[in-house]
Amino acid sequence: RTGLEMGRAQAMQAEAAGIEPDVRMNPILLKPNTDMGSQLIVNGQLRGNMQASAYFSYKQQLIPDILQAYQSLCADYEILVLEGAGSPAEINLKSQDIVNMGLAEMVDAPVLLVGDIDRGGVFAQLYGTVALLEAKEQQRIKGLIINKFRGDVDILKPGLRMLQEKTGLSILGVVPYLSVDLEDEDSLAPRLDRWERRAAIDIAVIRLPHISNFTDFNALEQQPQTSVRYVARPTQLGNPDLLILPGSKNTMADLQWLRSCGLESLIQDKAKAGLPLIGICGGYQMLGESISDPQGEERGGHIAGMRLLPVHTEFSSSKRTARVRGSICQQKGFFSCLSGYGFSGYEMHMGQTRRIAEASPFALISTPDKQLAEDGAVQGNVLGTYVHGLFDSGNVAANLCAALRQQKGLSTTPMPLPVLDYTVYKEQQYNELASCLRQSLDMRQIYAIMGIKQRKAASVSTLE
Known about the structure:
The protein is an alpha/beta fold. Helices cover 30% and strands 25% of the residues. The protein has a six-stranded mixed β-sheet.
């Protein structure tokens, strides 16, 4: 709502809790844009690019920002969950820790330690983590949880008893591996490994090395007879029905990667042959005539684009972040299926893109300050837009996939039951996860650890 930038994971957690995402929930955000560096975003605003070694020395200076966000949230909410990052026992980093045990000590918070059994070695993970902590840190841990367990929990119980004896900590529950469809947090998401065609309507997304905001396409997967796959090599591309260039944390580097691995020429050939092609944010920038970076925000200099849209992008030190609503302009050809439909989403990008020849704008958008502006460009079967979340609401995804089915002659095929609105679908997934957690965890003890003793919660015993 404020146009400030925060992590997708924290926004999803707020959505699951039924509250408005708030940048205070993610006061420090690192967005990797090279192998050794990241954008540093503090309270939703870009503070600059920083190499890993520089950030390690600098991050203690961010403690006042973190504590200010924490104290402000404490005034508004009864319960705060402080989500750690990585392991609390990274002994090479612990002296400068501001997100795990370091933060817990700063605000005097009790700690629950969670181990992912699906990765293997969970008993060693949990016991080793506790053993590597200092005595005062060990005292702060109030219980252990095992996550993503597949199988019969009875087989696990002897190990749980031994773990409890060795650590002196209660086992608060074992959460089963669930098939709930939640949006993935980062570019290591399992869905990015899907590259084979799985349905009648085949949507291929290019898996860029610095791909961002790939959750843009989850709503498309819910459409009838439609699957989404991620392509990282020319041999995986095949003959999709729709091709998408997603956002990127480093547009110029990813464009050069497309060029060097051979995917660029394939994409150009497919587009010239009439394949519908959509570029979003960084993908939109790549589709243009050229990209320039006079201030060195990414790699500096000038690079030719894919020349599939008559637009030019120039980077600057300013970053646009805004929640937007809009309506799609009247289009011709394949994308006429989207004409007139409304949508909501957000923009989050470096640089400005301008049309330099005859091309239609994609949409008219309005920002919270009520300003109207043209977004994107469309030329024939190629579309570019800066709007993330375009497919999540309204009828955009449904109409796009219906046009793809019709193009393949599938419009007369008996269709499955109507697909739920994506917002409703996500709420169902959150509820399924919440129900499982209530059944799997000793919620009475967890509430007691938080100092809340009047909650009605079922108590489970993992060790019985």
